[in-house]
Design brief:
It is built from eleven helices and eight strands. With about 270 residues, it is of the alpha/beta class. It has a single domain, classed as Phosphoenolpyruvate-binding domains (TIM Barrel). Helix 2 links the parallel strand 1 and strand 2. Helix 4 runs parallel beside helix 5, helix 5 packs across helix 6 and helix 8 packs parallel to helix 9. The longest helix has 17 residues. It starts with 7 loop residues before the first helix and ends in an 11-residue tail after the last helix. The protein binds 3-methyl-2-oxobutanoic acid. 3-methyl-2-oxobutanoic acid binds next to strand 6.
Length: about 270
């Protein structure tokens, strides 16, 4: 059976039907292919590539060209998933024209299906302009890592009433502008529940509790490749770090002892 391609419309129907949406990050062809086969609904080419692929401390250094490289690799591995690409820091904050040019580059040069950007009211002009060009937009509120130097820490956001009220109003604005979904990162579960209940579009949580319409995790965290990052919200499904290290240690031993390659492994 040919798998049904996931569209933004299907995600909205999933919310209406109470079906939860699964989303994971990917940055290359091989993992994207595995995740697509495993039945993931949405792949996010996240600017977390800056951390987990490039080893930077924050998401700020990654460039639009680098995001385009990762996204075009992911797209080649996918036949069913919806692929959304983060607009990186500096590619949309200056003005709405720059935001539109960045979004168009992503769509034309990668073949991805939409973009994600961080923020609410302050980026609304850009959101509207990108949407007017026919590019699906996913919002991102709560802990927005591109603003880490403004927040100062990666702790839970919107615990205070004033920040929670702004988040709720931003979520409504993003929906009214025409965003097809919103990511809520690291906020109290009951706040995310209220936002999800008040919106018609899907709300995808990361550290935002069980009442969201779907969940997203960074692949390196979920698979236990990256073992230093252990926030409460993370469920680590594998500890790939150990078997990968063990396998490579064995390879090093085999090369050093000249037991690899053997007679059968040569021409
Ligand atoms: O870049 C990313 O991986 C993200 C997720 C944490 C939602 O934005």
């Amino acid at each position: 059976m040919v798998p049904k391609k996931i569209t933004t419309h299907i995600l909205q129907n999933m919310k209406s039907a109470g079906e939860k949406i699964s989303m994971i990050t990917a940055y290359d062809f091989s993992f994207a292919k595995l995740f697509d086969k495993a039945g993931i609904d949405v792949i996010l080419v996240g600017d977390s590539a800056s951390n987990v692929m490039a080893g930077h401390e924050t998401t700020l250094p990654i460039t639009l060209d680098q995001m385009i490289y990762h996204a075009s690799s992911v797209i080649r591995g996918v036949s069913r998933c919806l692929v959304i690409v983060d607009l990186p820091f500096g590619s949309y904050q200056s003005n709405s024209k720059e935001a539109l040019i960045s979004a168009i580059r992503i769509m034309k040069e990668t073949g991805a299906h939409g973009v994600k950007l961080e923020g609410g009211e302050e980026v609304m002009e850009s959101v509207k302009r990108i949407l007017a060009a026919g590019v699906p937009v996913m919002g991102h509120l709560g802990l927005t890592p591109q603003s880490i130097y403004k927040f100062g820490t990666y702790t839970v956001r919107a615990k205070e009433e004033s920040e929670a009220a702004k988040l709720k109003s931003d979520a409504k604005l993003l929906e009214e502008a025409g965003c097809f979904a919103i990511v809520l990162e690291k906020i109290p579960a009951l706040l995310a529940k209220e936002v999800a209940a008040n919106l018609h579009i899907p709300v995808i949580g990361i550290g935002a509790g069980k009442y969201c319409d779907g969940q997203v995790l960074v692949m390196h965290d979920l698979l236990g490749i990256n073992t230093e990052f252990k926030p409460r919200f993370l469920r680590q499904y594998l500890n790939l770090n150990e078997p990968i290290t063990a396998a490579v240690e064995q390879y090093v031993r085999d090369v050093r002892s000249n037991s690899f390659p053997n007679e059968q492994e040569q021409y």
